Amino acid sequence: MSKRVKFYIALISLAILGIIIMEYSKPKEVNWFESYTKHHKIPYGTYVFYEQLQHLFSNETIKDVEQPPYVYLNDNPLVEGTYLFINNSVLFGDAELDKVLEWTAQGNTLFIASNEFDQTLLDTLNLETDLLSKFEVEGDNFQFQLKNNYLDTTTVDFDRGSYAKYFNKIDTLNTSVVGVIKHFKNDVNDDEITLKTIEPICIIKQPFENGEIILSTFPEAFTNYFILNTPNQNYTAGLISYIDNSNSVYFDNYYKSGKVFNASPMYILLNTKALKWAYYIMLIGVIIYVIFEGKRKQRAIPIVKPLRNQTIDFTRTIANMYYEKGKHDDIARHKIQHFLEYIRTHLHLNTNVINDDFIKNLAARSNNSIDDTKHLFKTIEQFKNNKQLNTIELERLNTLIETFKSNNTWKKKT
Fold first, then answer.
1. Comparing C-alpha atoms, which of 361, 331, 360, 336 is closest to residue 348?
2. Would you give per-residue pLDDT tens digits along the chain (414 residues)?
3. CA–CA separation, 51 vs 53, rounded Å?
4. 153: which residues sit within 8 A by CB, 6+ positions away?
5. Which of 222, 282, 358, 374 is most open to solvent, judged by the fewest CB atoms within 10 Å of its CB?
6. Count of helices and strands (H, E) across the chain
7. What sign has the CA pseudo-torsion 370, 373, 378, 381?
8. Is 332 helix (H, G, I), strand (E, B) or coil?
9. 10 Å Cβ neighbour count for 47?
């Protein structure tokens, strides 16, 4: 290996080492994807909430539901308890919503924390929602408060997002206010006072036949980012207190933005930092090997021509030699011997005895007439006894033999 090659390899190795050090030293970028999935530890995952839920309830009480609600409730019609949905959007189909409401009406609790609800569900409960801008509240952050005096009513901050959903219309006879958005800028006239100008409502509870429905427009209250900021955990704990711990809690894992998990080997390889860099280093090493080792070893492969079969050329040369010296009788004798060998090999007849039976069998097998076959062997017999053949007679013998062989159907098949 030359000094230049060693220098290039050392230079590339130093560059790779520098890239690795830079990658490991730079701060990891925060993933703000709104996942709401129980196994995600990113800010908008619900890992912490699910862990606390397991501490407050027994493992037998919490049931993870990976199926659509319609399928799960249809397959398990006798389940009872609280069905908990947490996501940035929970939109049921018509048949699914009917199934969920039918299950709730039997004495169960439907708890949905979402930024977006089914319009049919809102119409059923006589509710309407609207957006509240961050510029319409005092301070830099949204502030939330629970309205139940038996719970911690401390106002908590949430510094993410520019808008928040709230209920701008409720059924005041049947709806209980659970939580509100605080410090709204009230700069309107008294005759324009609405629910928004009083205190924007973000969480409500409403009876539904024998059951009840709890809706929250603030699903971020269940995320890792919110709970880990003190004293926000008290706010989330107050919401959990609305869940009946005497029955099962069905934790929805179907309506989740982060539920899709790519299990392909390349996805796992490239999303694990150590494996990703091992893969990149391997590729770089292969490229280096191809550039240097391949260039050194790869040479043009010479084309080796196979040995020629010179039997035909040799035979032609000998034949010409006999022909030019006028040894027509020797040529005729070889020609006859070759023809008899042809009969033995291709037509499988014994040529030791040439009689009428042989002539008949040979004519039949070679697809020639008996007269032509007799004429051929009569001519052959004459040429055997003639020691002074001329060119014309030799050519006539060759023509008779080749014509006889050309009619052989066995030869054509092979």
1. 361
2. 577 777 777 888 888 888 877 777 777 778 888 999 998 999 999 999 999 998 888 777 899 999 999 999 999 988 999 999 999 999 998 999 999 999 999 999 999 999 999 999 999 999 999 998 888 777 778 899 999 888 988 999 998 878 899 999 999 899 999 999 987 665 544 455 455 557 899 999 999 999 999 999 999 999 999 999 988 999 999 999 999 888 899 999 999 887 655 545 776 677 777 888 888 888 888 888 777 766 655 566 778 888 776 656 655 665 665 566 556 667 777 778 888 888 888 888 888 888 888 888 888 888 888 888 888 888 888 777 666 667 777 777 778 888 887 876 555 444
3. 5
4. 145, 146, 147
5. 282
6. 16, 11
7. negative
8. helix
9. 17
Complete DSSP assignment for 61-86: TEEEE-S-HHHHHHH-TT--EEEEEE
Distance CA 146, CA 127 (A): 19
What predicted TM-score, i.e. pTM, was given to this entire model? 0.59
Residue 159, SS3?
coil
Domain 47-252 has CATH 3.30.450: no
Bridge partners of 204?
Answer: 177, 215
Look up residue 168 and give its two tokens.
């701008």
Burial 382-402 (b: 16+ CB within 10 A, else e): ebeeeeebeeebbeebeebbe
* Closest to 33 measured CA to CA, from 256, 241, 281: 256
In three-state secondary structure terms, 300 is coil
Could you state, in order of their start, the residue ranges of all structural domains in the chain? 3-27+265-297, 47-252, 311-413
The closest of 380, 414, 378 to 398, measured between CA atoms, is 380
240, 56 contact by CB (below 8 A): yes
Spell out the residues 6+ positions from residue 402 whose beta carbon is closer than 8 angstroms to its own.
Answer: none
